Amino acid sequence: MLHVTCAIIEHNNKILICQRSAFMKPPLKWEFPGGKIEAGESRSACLRREIREELGLEIEVHEELTAVTHAYPNFEITLYPFRCTVTDGELMLTEHAQVLWVSPAELQRYDWAEADVPIVNELMQLWS
Fold this sequence. Notes:
GO terms for molecular function: 8-oxo-7,8-dihydrodeoxyguanosine triphosphate pyrophosphatase activity; 8-oxo-7,8-dihydroguanosine triphosphate pyrophosphatase activity; 8-oxo-dGDP phosphatase activity; 8-oxo-GDP phosphatase activity; metal ion binding. This protein is α+β, with helices and mostly antiparallel strands.
């Protein structure tokens, strides 16, 4: 079981979404940025580290949303989503094919990684 955090980064009524590179599994799917929790690391510390490494941004971690457990064919993941805001940094890509700032209403237009779909649905309810 993988334990992974993800950031719902909000700015000016938009949310940052990331498209996985062609080399990532599942490839080219959209996701909320984040990564694996290391031994002894808190979820919020993991999220701040991963966003700094992957996107060059410093974030403030706020409310935790509902955790999602999903079984892919070769592994199982528990995803811990948090609402976040940017405090510093300049957006850069190190792992993803592209990133977009989208309105909550636009979230369902994208082809999401399966584990992220329940988070998209929860966000749609929060902003409806």
